[in-house]
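Chain A, query sequence.
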Amino acid sequence: MEKEDPDNWEFVVDPALKKAYQAKDFGPYALPDGRMPVAFAATTHTTGGNSGSPVMNGKGELVGINFDRNWEGVGGDIQYLPDYQRSIIADIRYVLFVIDKVAGAGYLLDEMELTK
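Chain A, predicted structure.
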């Protein structure tokens, strides 16, 4: 919300998202303290074309979806650079929140029998 710019298509915020954010209506996807996780950085090794890849934790649970990487890590296309390589991951709780509360498609989550 802090970067919203209605004059720049890359920073337009959907009215349904704005409404849910203002009401703090994050449903069961919020953290225990009420905050909504959106994204996190990981030290995963990615390259162009990895967007949309699942990100799993050590227990094999889906925790996010890869969607970008930092510019400094682009050299990692040639060799892994542990000090620079970072992936930007959409937190799966945010993805589920958007499907359910913003898009109004919670029925999809029900069809997949995902627990909330």
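Strands lie at 39-42, 54-56, 62-69, 87-91. The longest strand covers residues 62-69.
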